[in-house]
Every structure is written in C-alpha cells, then in structure tokens.
Design goal:
Rossmann fold, about 220 residues, alpha/beta, two-stranded antiparallel sheet, about 30% helix
C-alpha cells in the first residue's frame, strides 16, 4: 500500500513548498522545524491505520470512554538527515521506543557509490509496529539496507516506511524489495528524475546539509 499525502490539499503542501524553496532553505532552523512539522502530520496520518482499544478514564465529574492506541510503535531513522523528521513523529508517538541507523554513501572515483551501515541502535522489534523514516527516498537502497539491519532485532508485524520526497525509482525499488501485506509506504511527493549522482530532481537538495550544515 502506498499513500501520497501530497496529493490532498492540506497545510502539508505549504511545508513541502518551504523545504523546496532555495531562499527559505537558507534558514536552517526553519528548515529543521518544517521537517519536524511534516513529521507530525505523517504521524497523525499513520495513526489512523493503527489498532485502538476502548478504555475508561476518570474525570473530576465522571467517567469517559476513549479509544487509545493498543500499542506504541518503534520509531527508527537514518542519521543525520532523518533526525528532525523523526522528532516530529516522536512528538506525536511520544511513548514510542526508538532506533537509529548510522548509514552513509561511500563514493568512489568512478562516480559510483555504495551504502555503508556502521552502527545500529535498536530495541527488540519482534511483532512490533515499526515506523522507519528518512526525508528522502532516492534510489531506495539506503532505506532498504536500514530495514535489513533492523530485522536483526526481530521481525515487525507491520512496517511503515515514511519519506517526504521520493523518486519514482526509489518507490519501485522499495515495492520490489519489501513485498507483502505487512508493509506500507508513505510519501508527500514523488519526483520522476534522478541525477547521475542519484539525487532527486527537482527534490530539495541534501537534507542533512540543509538541516545541519555542510560536511567534509
């Protein structure tokens, strides 16, 4: 199942327009905050697909019956670009456990690159709801490799993969490599083109650099 939240008219598209805008991108604090707000919207939409149970709560005047989450998910992200997006999701799923994957592109002189995962910090995800997020889904290989490493800590009963801007190629890659009914992909925009260096066009640029400054 794939949900493209950007196809609906909502405030989400205002925030998407701002993270794409080269002028607004010059304010890194605003860029981070927009990623966080987008994460909050994604979390709200994902929450509609989760299981709930009815519980009674005592107020000062009586008893109220409210539907609450049956279980809290495990939230995972890829360092470093994923941190603000992840924080927005955590703002809503504030009782969730968290996992972090240290992954990066190792570039070669030929112009090609491979994905390196150096470290994974994760709780047990066996039979849990897993929400794996990263702002950009370019080739899809980083997201899939992160998912594979998380599986070393258990098999989730359902996985939600969240990306703000995805390429058509990345979407197809994830669909091919994570088949089955226990997987949902959420995006806010799908762009058709990738550069020779596998950056999404028009995309928004390097989300990590825009959020935290350029790196060596």
């Amino acid at each position: 199942m794939i949900y493209n939240l950007g196809q609906e008219n909502s405030l989400l598209n205002v925030f998407i327009s701002e993270i794409r805008d080269a002028e607004i991108q010059k304010d890194s604090m605003r860029f981070r905050r927009n990623l966080e707000r987008i994460g909050e919207i994604f979390a709200y939409e994902v929450s509609k697909k989760m299981e709930y149970e009815s519980r009674e709560f005592i107020t000062s005047l009586g008893t109220a019956e409210v539907s609450v989450l049956k279980e809290n998910p495990v939230l995972a992200t890829i360092l470093r670009a994923g941190l603000p997006f992840h924080q927005g999701i955590l703002n809503f799923f504030d009782r969730a456990q968290n996992a972090f994957i240290s992954a990066y592109r190792r570039h070669h002189k030929s112009g090609k690159f491979d994905i390196q995962v150096e470290y994974t910090s994760s709780p047990n995800i066996d039979d849990k709801i897993l929400i794996l997020s990263d702002p950009m889904l370019a080739t899809g290989s980083s997201m899939f490799l992160a998912y594979k490493h998380l599986l070393e800590n258990g098999k989730p009963k359902h996985t939600h993969i969240l990306a703000i801007v995805a390429s058509s190629q990345g979407v197809e890659y994830i669909k091919k490599h994570i088949p089955g009914e226990n997987f949902t992909l959420w995006v806010a925009a799908i762009d058709d083109e990738l550069t020779a260096q596998s950056y999404i066009v028009p995309g928004l640029g390097d989300a990590g650099d825009l959020a935290y400054g350029s790196k060596l």
